[in-house]
Amino acid sequence: MNLGQFWGGEWQSQWIVDIPQNLMTGSIKVNNHYFEFGNMAFNLVKKFDPVTLSASDGQTIVAKINEIETKY
Fold first, then answer.
1. What is the pTM of this model?
2. How distant, in Å, are the alpha carbons of 29, 48, 50, 51 from that of 67?
3. 25, β-bridge pairs
């Protein structure tokens, strides 16, 4: 939120990890609202193809999510 600059928004992620298979699937939802000279909304839903993980430990999972979301 930055109401002084006339915008607000949210980024929601959901990731599912198949530990025995070392696979991860996920999606993000981005919602933005700009209202300086009227109202304009931006809504995005992005689903990612399955991603193979090198391991299913927490550090590897978090690093892969960070990599994918930062790149996107």
1. 0.77
2. 17, 13, 14, 12
3. 16
Cβ atoms 28, 15 nearer than 8 A: no
Residues 26 and 13 sit within 8 Å (Cβ to Cβ): yes
The predicted structure's pLDDT at residue 62: 96
Number of helices (H), then strands (E), belonging to the chain: the values are: 1, 3
Closest CA to 13 of 28, 34, 31: 28
**Helix intervals (H) in the chain:** 58-71
Structure tokens at 43: 């809504």
